[in-house]
Design brief:
single chain, 6-stranded mixed beta sheet, 19 helices, 32% helix
């Protein structure tokens, strides 16, 4: 099947005068999760980040450290799996003409990855569309969130952007990332499988005038609420003409999500300034209303998680599969009327599958969970109104000492992040170093960042903040991040402990506060490796969970949770 699809792409090389074709993971809206996964179509790779290059006799799949094992399992029969580090000024192939769809790449990506050693040819038709895969699309219109939910009127947000434009002597901002349009107008949609994204773009000028780019039927619910006139809605097919009629000036294009297609339209009319859309940072600072909604959401999610953890450790007597386990967890989430859908595909890996950092259990191939397995479950939900992401690693019998020791060192890293002095460790790079410290003492590490930014009822992964070896964005009050150190032994087991945390100010001092309310498996802890402060942290953490969610549990669940304090 994959071979036939690759050959179909290759059959068009002569017609278009190319030696190869590049296929990224993202769609035209640069979404991490999309209903239009062309990379999976051509390579069978199901990870959330990657890029394929189809050449005449060889194919390459670029993935980062999270997906190396997974990519080899899913795609190595047709692709050479290459570390993402080698994509910069790629030297694996030279002096070739590579075809691209201009709607799914930014000019920065192409310049950084392939333009130095190869020629790039724009093809205004996506060759993967030759493969007749029916991608699911929803035609439901976008909807508004009230100020009670967002905490800030969209007019105030527009004023912030206009102020930014004027301060930077800019005439226009093209908001190409749909999640940033969602934040600015306080709207959401149904265009993404794991996030309430409204797939559209927006142009705003320094006179407060906004223009929405998308099909008019998508905007019919929000036209009255936002007082938008029909002439402010531009059909994508008419966009070139619309731009040609605008006044000249300087326009800011987002370097992360403005495609070559749109950049080429704008360059004929405007002086282009390339930078990150300022909304990324504004969106990262959650207001008190958004934080309170996230706190409530995590109480609901904590109830579902705790019920699931009790069930799988104490009640379940069958040999269930990973697939059945992840469905059982979602069934607990679905009992809450505010639950909508998963915030990403659940990662439920047992034994050696737990070592595949972003493993996905399929019904036909899912492994049965054995009593001696270590089980890693990373999941999240989208609720009205909030986004969750949590990982727990659990055992079902007495674990080996070396596993307990490694789990405890991961836990020490997790606690180090949660209790970090944010005056001293004021960015993600500094925090990341303390997360890895305990594992590093015995020569161990993990091939992913320690944490990512999280959206408010939006994308589960958002920037600019992150806890990683390279991120130097200052940690600010109101930011939400994940805290997820781990360790993975190939063909053996995986360990990760993840909570969502937010930055809170107490007595003029910034600190992290846990959002996630799910117990940590004490059967995996070697208490001899914990110091007094770490033991005290665990006691307070489990006590807080009990105080917040015990009233929603049955008698046996409550008793079990109480025993963890």
């Amino acid at each position: 099947m994959i071979k036939k699809r690759i050959n179909l792409i290759r059959s068009k090389f002569n017609e278009y005068g190319i030696d190869g074709y590049i296929i990224p993971k993202n769609d035209e809206f640069f979404s991490e999760y999309s209903n239009k996964d062309r990379l999976k179509t051509i390579s069978n790779f199901t990870g959330s980040a990657g890029l394929a290059v189809i050449l005449k006799t060889k194919n390459y799949l670029f993935v980062d450290g999270r997906y190396t094992i997974q990519a080899n399992l899913e795609s190595r029969s047709h692709f050479k799996i290459v570390s993402y580090e080698k994509i910069v000024n790629c030297k694996l192939f030279k002096n070739l003409t590579l075809g691209i769809d201009p709607k799914i790449f930014t000019s920065e990506q192409i310049k950084k990855y392939f333009a130095k050693n190869n020629k790039i040819k724009v093809i205004n038709f996506n060759l993967v569309n030759l493969i007749f895969i029916k991608y699911t699309t929803k035609s439901k219109p976008f909807y508004s969130l009230s100020e009670k939910i967002t905490g800030q009127n969209h007019k105030i947000k527009i004023n912030k952007i206009v102020k930014y434009l004027r301060q930077n002597n800019l005439d226009y901002l093209f908001i190409s990332a749909p999640e940033n349009v969602a934040w600015l107008l306080n709207i959401r949609g149904y265009d993404n499988p794991n996030s309430p994204i409204p797939n559209c773009h927006l142009l705003i000028n320094d006179k407060k005038k906004i223009f929405l780019i998308g099909k008019i039927k998508k905007f019919k619910k929000i036209i009255k609420e936002k007082k938008i006139e029909l002439k402010q809605i531009v059909d994508p097919e008419n966009f070139k003409y619309f731009v040609s009629e605008l006044r000249n000036g300087k326009i800011l294009l987002d370097s992360k999500s403005c495609s070559i297609f749109y950049e080429n339209i704008f360059k004929k009319k405007f002086r282009i300034i390339k930078y990150d859309d300022p909304i990324y940072f504004l969106k990262s600072i959650k207001n008190n209303c958004e934080i309170n909604h996230m706190i409530n959401t995590h109480i609901w999610d904590g109830v579902a998680l705790t019920k699931f953890l009790y069930w799988i450790k104490n009640i379940n007597t069958k040999k269930i599969t990973e697939y059945e386990a992840q469905n059982k967890l979602e069934s607990f989430r679905k009992k809450n009327k505010n639950y909508l859908f998963p915030s990403f595909n659940t990662i439920a890996g047992s034994g050696k599958n737990g070592a595949i950092i972003h493993y996905r259990a399929e019904k036909k191939s899912a492994k049965k969970i054995k009593v001696n397995d270590i089980f890693l479950c990373d999941s999240g939900g989208q609720y009205k109104y909030g986004t969750t992401d949590v990982t727990r690693t659990i055992c079902f019998s007495k674990p080996k000492n070396n596993i307990k020791n490694i789990f405890t060192r991961v836990l020490k890293g997790h606690i180090a992040v949660a209790t970090a002095n944010l005056k001293k460790y004021y960015n993600g790079k500094l925090i990341d170093s303390i997360a890895r410290k305990s594992l590093g003492k015995i020569g161990l590490d993990y091939q992913h960042g320690t944490g990512h930014g999280v959206g408010f009822f939006l994308n589960v992964h958002e920037g600019p903040q992150a806890i990683s070896k390279f991120n130097q964005v200052k940690i600010c009050e109101g930011m939400i991040l994940s805290n997820e150190p781990g360790y993975y032994k190939k063909n053996s087991f995986g360990i990760r402990i993840e909570n969502l945390i937010y930055v809170k100010k107490i007595k003029n001092k910034l600190c992290f506060e846990n959002l996630t309310l799910a117990p940590i498996d004490k059967d995996l802890i070697n208490y001899n490796l914990l110091n007094k402060d770490e033991k005290n942290y665990l006691f307070k953490y489990h006590l807080n969970i009990y105080l917040k969610i015990s009233k929603f549990l049955n008698k046996n669940e409550k008793k079990w949770l109480g025993s963890l304090i």
